[in-house]
Write a structure and sequence with these properties.
thiamine biosynthesis, Heme Oxygenase, Chain A, 223 residues, thiaminase activity, single chain, Thiaminase_II, 82% helix
Length: 223
């Protein structure tokens, strides 16, 4: 078993729980409430900017030129390509640029963005890459699972198709290969830190989707 496969297997129950979240169940059925999807899209667009920055920082830490290109390209994809998908949905759903700019990050989104940026800046390169992997891999596998049972005429089909696509899965395989190479050269303590970073990010993926379904927001005097 490769190191990346060991990460996946160690966190398989968490992935299954992510698949079973009401957000993803209803997304597959095409019955997800419009307000919930809009809430998710706004937060995910905010998240992608932070994710792009974390990818760019990680690119600068790379131990070889291939890694610089790999993660710099991924940063470009996150900010330019994936956000173009969001922008299309936002136009279709009447979310104006002003509304997007005025909507603050939710606690789950803020936590996830802060975690990835802090890890990218402060952790060793292999650990930073491991923290970035769940967003690639879990999205790809959720997209593939939903695509296999997506309802006919699903209004969210463009989202499903993006993350189920072979192009996206090829990127995931590339990141997994980098993780495997780094793990093979790492100490046991670094490999343990990579496991911990992957699990923390996978938990935050779960929290992000759960938060979107609940329309979670800051409460009380912190608003």
């Amino acid at each position: 078993m490769s190191f990346s496969q060991s990460l996946w297997q160690a966190n398989l129950p968490l992935f299954q729980s992510t698949l079973e979240l009401p957000f993803n169940q209803e997304l597959a059925a095409g019955s997800l409430n419009r307000e919930r999807f809009c809430h998710y899209m706004i937060q995910d667009a905010h998240y992608l900017v932070a994710y792009g920055r974390a990818l760019a920082v990680t690119a600068a830490k790379s131990d070889n030129a291939e890694g610089v290109v790999q993660f710099a390209n991924a940063a470009n994809e996150a900010v330019v390509v994936e956000r173009s998908l969001h922008d299309g949905f936002m136009r279709d759903y009447g979310i104006t640029p002003d509304r997007f700019a005025a909507t603050p990050l939710t606690p789950a989104c803020h936590h996830y963005c802060s975690y990835l940026l802090a890890t990218a800046w402060s952790a060793a390169y292999p650990v930073a890459v491991a923290a970035l992997l769940p967003c690639f891999w879990i999205y790809a596998e959720v997209g593939r699972a939903i695509h296999a049972r997506s309802a006919a005429g699903n209004p969210y089909q463009p989202w499903v198709d993006t993350y189920a696509s072979e192009e996206f899965h090829a990127v995931v395989r590339g990141v997994c290969a980098t993780v495997d190479r780094l793990a093979a050269e790492a100490t046991e303590s670094t490999r343990a830190a990579m496991h911990a970073a992957y699990r923390d990010a996978a938990r935050l993926e779960w929290m992000f989707w759960d938060s979107a379904y609940r329309l979670a927001d800051w409460q009380g005097p912190l608003r």
